[in-house]
């Protein structure tokens, strides 16, 4: 489903007090007497899609102008996603856009119920509407738009070569960026490699082991307090078992005292089971104390003061601490750093070889890009010739028989994402005139007709769903006017078309006819918009033809025009 404008409400703009435009999906025409405010309809649409706000257009006496539009869009489509990205909402496939302009020049915009910068509406308009008026021909005057439109016109002939070029271009860009990084950052990478080598040499020289720093700390504590540890173990052993240097233990050591206690209890254990249990526990305690005493004696024998070893341990710890301070939190993390650093150094030391490989690849990609870009140019040149002929033929039917439109292709300075072609539409107003850019080769009215011819030729290839034309029929009449109406109707087969016109030959081809009616009390003029039925169209066309709504001749001519348009559709 193509997006379209369903309804536009305008308040306080120009002579329009309040008006509602109900638009059809096809060809909509807006007519009315001079000064009724037809152009304000186009101005309102322009404001709705981010156009420049002009406070002088606000209705005299009004505080502000308000334009609100209801659009029908696809729920999960590109436009809906853009709205959701700025926090707006699309409900039931309908999008509400609103714009206000105050008399002081302040402007505010809303998109899907969310306040947004006016620039957001301009960005959104690229996918929704193309306005072709006396003062607004910007969309197809943009070089990027012209190239994209020509590519769509080229169709399937361009799809495959453009896809191949795009893939090569992406890889070319990646390789060029990586090569640039390797070459421009050579000094930094060399400095990084030197630091890594220095660090690895330090680690290799020390040769730390995982957990070694903790083991050395324990050993240093033991060696630093060897005398105290041995004395404590000896004293404890003496207390438990007596002096080991004496043949017999003292009477006051723990083992002797436990022995006396056990003997006393053992003598009477048979008389009471409770006391017998205590005797067993005393025996168990005696065995445990004896084991501890034996271990204390062995420990005391093992502890030796070794100043040389202590100095060595302290020196080793100092060296490890220096490494840990630079490269990790402990000896294990130092080893992990060394492993990572070795890998990074291998990568850096391979830069020269890598630069050579990338340089060769870049040369191959450049050669391939050149060939693929040439193929794109060949396809575009052929499409440009067909397009120029088709638009020129359209202009002949639109009362511009001597005008000629061409597509100029020039080569860009470097490869781009779509090739090396810069595309520009040009027009020569007569055979002796040089081809000039569109905005310089035609007047305002002529430019609208040129744009109509271009849009008709592009019909179906251009993704913009709504076209707005203001004064597209300026300076023409008769057969040329019929041809303009016929082409607008043709364009409306694939898009929504909104046209402001003063020619009945154009209005007759519309699917929906809106008239701007002017009313005044002598001092205040107000305009509103009315949707016409068949009888209303006959009256309006009669007025446009003869200046009289009830002229029999005018009505007959109006009916003839409507019949011609109906048969043509």
Automatic annotation (TrEMBL):
Check the record and name the Pfam families matching this protein: SMC_N
Kindly list the GO CC terms recorded for this protein.
bacterial nucleoid
Role description: May be involved in recombinational repair of damaged DNA.
Which family would the database say this protein is a member of?
Belongs to the RecN family.
Q: Which domain of life is it from?
A: Bacteria
The UniProt entry's coiled-coil ranges are 348-382
Q: Answer whether the UniProt record assigns the keyword Cytoplasm to this protein.
A: no
Q: Which NCBIfam families match?
A: recN (TIGR00634)
**Which GO-annotated molecular functions does the record name?**
ATP binding
Question: Coding gene?
Answer: recN
List the protein's name: DNA repair protein RecN
Q: Which keywords does UniProt give here?
A: ATP-binding, Coiled coil, DNA damage, DNA repair, Nucleotide-binding
Residue ranges of domain RecF/RecN/SMC N-terminal in the record: 6-518
Record-level GO BP terms: DNA recombination; DNA repair; SOS response
């Amino acid at each position: 489903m193509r997006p379209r404008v369903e309804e536009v409400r305008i308040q306080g703009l120009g002579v329009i007090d309040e008006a509602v435009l109900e638009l059809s999906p096809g060809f909509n025409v807006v007519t009315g007497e001079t000064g009724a405010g037809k152009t304000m309809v186009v101005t309102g649409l322009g404001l709705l899609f981010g156009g420049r706000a002009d406070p002088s257009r606000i209705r005299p006496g009004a505080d502000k102008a308000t334009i609100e539009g209801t659009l029908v869009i696809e729920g999960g489509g590109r436009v809906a996603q853009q709205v959701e990205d700025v926090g707006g909402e699309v409900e039931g496939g309908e999008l509400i856009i609103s714009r206000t302009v105050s008399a002081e020049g302040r402007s505010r915009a809303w998109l899907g119920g969310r306040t947004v910068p006016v620039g957001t509406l301009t960005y959104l308009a690229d996918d929704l509407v193309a306005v072709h008026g006396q003062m607004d021909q910007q969309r197809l005057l943009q070089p990027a738009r012209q190239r994209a439109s020509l590519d769509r016109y080229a169709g399937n002939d361009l799809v495959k070569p453009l896809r191949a070029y795009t893939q090569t271009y992406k890889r070319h860009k990646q390789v060029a960026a990586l090569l640039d990084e390797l070459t421009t950052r050579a000094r930094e990478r060399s400095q990084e490699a030197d630091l890594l080598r220095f660090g690895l040499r330090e680690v290799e020289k020390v040769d730390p082991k995982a957990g070694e720093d903790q083991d050395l700390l324990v050993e240093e504590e033991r060696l630093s307090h060897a005398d105290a540890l041995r004395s404590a173990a000896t004293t404890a052993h003496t207390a438990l078992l007596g002096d080991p240097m004496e043949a017999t233990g003292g009477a006051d050591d723990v083992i002797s005292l436990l022995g006396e206690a056990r003997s006393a209890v053992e003598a009477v254990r048979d008389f009471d089971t409770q006391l017998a249990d205590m005797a067993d526990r005393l025996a168990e305690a005696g065995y445990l104390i004896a084991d501890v005493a034996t271990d204390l004696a062995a420990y005391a024998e093992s502890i030796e003061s070794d100043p040389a070893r202590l100095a060595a341990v302290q020196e080793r710890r100092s060296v490890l601490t220096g490494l840990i301070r630079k490269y990790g939190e402990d000896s294990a993390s130092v080893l992990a750093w060394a492993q990572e650093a070795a890998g990074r150094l291998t990568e850096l030391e391979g830069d020269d070889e890598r630069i050579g490989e990338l340089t060769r690849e870049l040369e191959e990609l450049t050669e391939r890009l050149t060939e693929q870009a040439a193929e794109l140019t060949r396809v575009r040149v052929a499409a440009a010739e067909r397009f120029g002929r088709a638009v020129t033929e359209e202009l002949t039917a639109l009362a511009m028989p001597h005008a000629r439109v061409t597509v100029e292709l020039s080569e860009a300075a470097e490869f781009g994402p779509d090739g090396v072609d810069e595309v520009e539409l040009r027009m020569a107003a007569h055979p002796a005139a040089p081809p000039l850019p569109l905005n310089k080769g035609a007047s305002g009215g002529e430019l609208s007709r040129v744009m109509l011819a271009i849009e008709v030729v592009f019909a179906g290839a251009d993704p913009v769903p709504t076209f707005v034309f203001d004064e597209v029929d300026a300076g023409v009449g008769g057969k040329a006017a019929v041809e303009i109406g016929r082409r607008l109707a043709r364009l409306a087969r694939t898009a929504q078309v909104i046209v402001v016109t003063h020619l009945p030959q154009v209005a007759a081809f519309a699917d929906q006819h809106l008239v701007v009616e002017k009313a005044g009390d002598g001092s205040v003029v107000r305009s509103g918009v009315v949707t016409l039925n068949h009888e209303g169209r006959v009256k309006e066309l009669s007025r446009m033809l003869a200046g009289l709504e009830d002229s029999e001749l005018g009505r007959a001519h109006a009916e003839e025009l409507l019949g011609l348009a109906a048969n043509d559709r």
